[in-house]
Amino acid sequence: MEAPTAERLFDLRRFPSDGVLLLLLFLYTPVGLCLLILRIFIGVHIFLVSCALPDNLIRRFIMRVMCSVLGLCVKQNDPRLRDSAVKVYISNHITHFDHNIINLLTSCNTPVSKGASGFVCWARGFMELSAMGNHLELIEHLKQYSSQGYSLPLLLFPEEETTNGRAGLLKFSSWQFSILDVVQPVALQAQRPFIAVSLADSSWITELLWTFFVPFTVFQVRY
Length: 223
Description:
The protein has 223 residues and is α/β, with parallel strands linked by helices.
C-alpha cells in the first residue's frame, strides 16, 4: 500500500473550498461569535469546577456533560475493550486537546518536558516533568512513575505531532514502547462542521477559540 503524502496527513487550510459551505459559514458567523463569547465564560466556570472536584467517576461524568456545552461531544466504543490494568495508553494525535478528551473517559497523565510550564502546563492538564537530557532519562523516569501502584496510567502520543487523523499516521517514535511491555492502543477521530479540526503549526489557544466558535466537535474514541 502506498504511503500517504504529507499533504493528505495535514490540513493546511482552515476554511472549506466549497462555495456552498463558505456561504453557510458566513451566515453562521454571528451565531458562532456569540457562542465563542458565551463559551469562554462557561469554560472558566468548568475549569474551576474541575479543580474543586476529586478525580473519580462522578467528576468525569459531570465534566463530560459540561464539556458538551462547550461543543465537545465525546463518544467511545465498548469501554470493556480497555484493559484497566494497563499503565500505558498509546494514541494517535489529532488536536491539542486529545489528552483532555481521553481524561473525560478515564483518568490518565500525559507527561510533557518542553513548552509551557508551571500554571499553564497544569491548567491544560499535563503532567510537567523536569527537563530530561535524553530519551533514556525520560524512559527511566516514567518507568519509576509507572512502578508506583497508585500512579495513573500514562497517555502518550508517539507521532509527537498532530495530523488530521483521516489519511494515515506519522511514523511512531519508539521510546514510548520501552516503558512497559504491555500498552493499550487508543484510536482517536474528530469531526466538526464548516472548518478543519486542526491546522499544522496552529497554537493551542487559536484551536481552542475555533472550537468554541463552531457548533460542536465530535470525538470518537476506540480501543
